[in-house]
């Protein structure tokens, strides 16, 4: 890892650097240099001095920085003198640039600053176009500005040659002042600076950008920064709607600004083509009542400190969404933060110590806790821990120090001398008085100060002083020394332009004495430029051994308490008594150039030593950690300082189906951002970032709004759909595709886990769950609530949350006792083993296999010359296609459904097609796409045959195989939640149409023991058992039968009763509930059987309810759910939509309308396990009797009939609580 530096500034303006290869702070070589702020980047650091100049520090490099200056000497030929520098009035300058527009004589070139020096003198470039020239460097042309060449011709009337001179940058490794350019406006008194932009998202290796803020709140951008011009060329003003106090630029294209009123601005449109951006957008602050104090920006993170010193993290920030999506509170109290490389976070704590945010990674950008930066200081061998004795409050004297700071004399003018300096010095009490007299007897400020107090106006000269000045001193502040007195009570009097700095010895000269006293100051003493120094709490920062008795002497000479701010002349070394011998009191930190990540092993980031002393940020945490004497390094490093909020991010690259024209797959980057508060509550947002017409955009989906994640079949094998209630209503799910099947599985698992955690869903499906399968074979489960089946305000079907259960089935059936059976595409029966196990018991996943047939149709058309050939009409379907003929697919180009499937057979002709086939497998028809039949007639001009191939999938799931008979349909008897049965009736149909009854099925033995064959005179295709052991079945010819005398004692019944089918309709599937029977015919019509009573269970007649239904399921409460063929108004949606029959009740068992839910590719649904009673509205008995003259309903369960009698509730009803 390369050696990089961490920069910090103390309250005196001294600049320090800490190398990743050492453990000691190093002060800059220039002892007179005083900086207010530092902004570090890769290989360079920028600073703003107390003189408001900008300074640059470039890291030393083996490659020197050299810049080539060049100018062109131009001549014209005349008949008398030949080529001379006497040109025509319309010609270019005799000495100019390559274009000839600007005049550039040799004497006009000069080094811009003392950081540059010439390497040699001017010399002529003897090459032309990169090749050596014999003409002395001259290039000839007919005229200006024609093309020049080294060859002189008869018509060459002009010539030129290039002069070159190099200058070298000599200030690497030191702080060099950037020279002031000469803009149209006055020189800029900058108060803040920020470096960034070297990692623009469009391209790597971007030159850094420099931003600045003036004292007037203007924003400036430094132009012309290049590798060979590190200082840049000029400043460009960027308009802002309000006055800016501070800004921060990230390594990418993020720029945030802090306004003086505490609000935040975000710069939009930053890019390589537009480095200054296009517009500003205001962003709300983290707290409505607390204003922002400081902002720091990284590549994709934003941190903010508010005026109550709370730290906040902005979630959802990146180049596509610079404004982010919300604030997350982070533990700790800081005065400022800085984001460095790899989005690592550095901070200055409220105790003026330096801290590092540990645990910051790409997946967890908010980190886990704060640890102190422990490095050696000066010549000491002890570490410099964070300061927990720094008060952090601003006295009245320090406010005066802020007001007294002005620009240097070279920029603004001489500093006005204070008028009452002598009086202030004269009224200071001697040390004896200040130590013995009570506070009430101390001298008061001069009358002039009291009569005309100077109002405090925050400026940007001292960041910490100006922004914490409005913070009141808390009772828990650090205790003051005996010599310290409150402002206004004689201990620390307000100073208009300079405060008194305590000295370490009686012979030390204080800044106040340097200014002069009495008449000397009034007789025009030399005005010395003064710099702002924030000495807030400096006495508390010094130890008693350092002060000794000299402190009292200095207090007697210089006055002021421990909290008073002092200044010292620019040009004098800092006094050793003002914090020189002790650890620095930090005011600023910059880690933009420090290459540290969460896995770096840095000696001064070890949390072992300081954890026992002053590691915490609050007194409570300090007391808690002080009791921990010894900890192993590994144990301590894993323990954060506080249990704070955190943000976790998973990012990746997917493909997104853009559902507007032109519809196509688009490469996008995605991110799942999850925030966790202190209480463990999690919130997630799924972002999709894309680019349209060179404009960065994004989509976001709250995980709380996601209703399903379903794998889909399509052109891209690894695709899945993300549903929300709104997208389900529009019939347009979010379609994404992963590069590999493993990536798709990982994303589905991650999203599903986040959704379940947010909804509090854990463990296997409940006994009341709704089960469904997709046409792809995936199994989906929904956990019902009491609102699902309410008649007044049922839960919208589009808002139901479906989660994926491992396995692969064609259909699934369940009941409320926890029994779940399923049938694979190959007819294998499976039993789910998770719902019937004891709570807490672990069940191992078992291998589950399924075999599916893939079909391809070969189409041909007859012509008189050659008969049936594969040459069709232009309007015909492809000669190799699917069953619909809309999609072309040959045997060679047809793959398995997904990479999880593998071929187990070769392509063969399928003779068992519906409608029959001849000996070669052909089916005939008059034209495409009419009904095909198995024999040829004179009117049949087209034919087709189906080719089939089997593929197999193997996975691990909680399904247990039930051998040995292959099934085509199955049904479990529904029951209420409180029901208890020794054996659960299970009826099934074999793949040959035989009726079977499973014996020995119990909740403890869900697979049962054996099959009992039930005799029939023809094969069946659908069967269902309802309440009271009602068994209904449909034969393959569409005839309906009812099985009589089925009971627990006689599980197989006695005989079949034929039930007439609906007129001119052939039924194909039915479902029996508690008191109702619904069936679906071949034309996708839904029928209801009327007249079912306990005495006449066969019913009386069929009633048409609806069309467009392919599957129906009736639950134990007679609730009706179905799989619709489609939704009206959305013809492009794939067949198979889940829908719920609304209004079903005892008085209206047929319902009145459909509520469409998730759709597009659903195959089967089972609600026969949902025995959750709907929420009932309590109505007084008298009113209920008047409005409901019908007799009370009956509830059937098995063979029992229970009479429900309404009970009169009390007149005074207690309103439900919020928790209810």
UniProtKB/TrEMBL annotation:
Species this chain originates from: Gadus morhua (Atlantic cod)
UniProt feature, compositional bias: Low complexity: 475-487, 494-506
UniProt record similarity statement: Belongs to the TECPR1 family.
Composition skew (Polar residues), residue ranges: 433-443, 457-468, 507-517
Superkingdom in the source lineage: Eukaryota
Pfam family, one: Hyd_WA
Residues covered by region (Disordered): 402-523, 877-899
SMART domains: DysFC (SM00694), DysFN (SM00693), PH (SM00233), TECPR (SM00706)
Peroxin/Ferlin domain location: 64-125, 137-170, 849-910, 921-954
Keyword annotations: Repeat
Domain (PH): residue spans on this chain: 648-758
Gene: TECPR1
GO cellular component: autophagosome membrane; cytoplasmic vesicle; lysosomal membrane
Name of this chain's protein: Tectonin beta-propeller repeat containing 1
GO molecular function: lipid binding
GO BP terms: autophagy
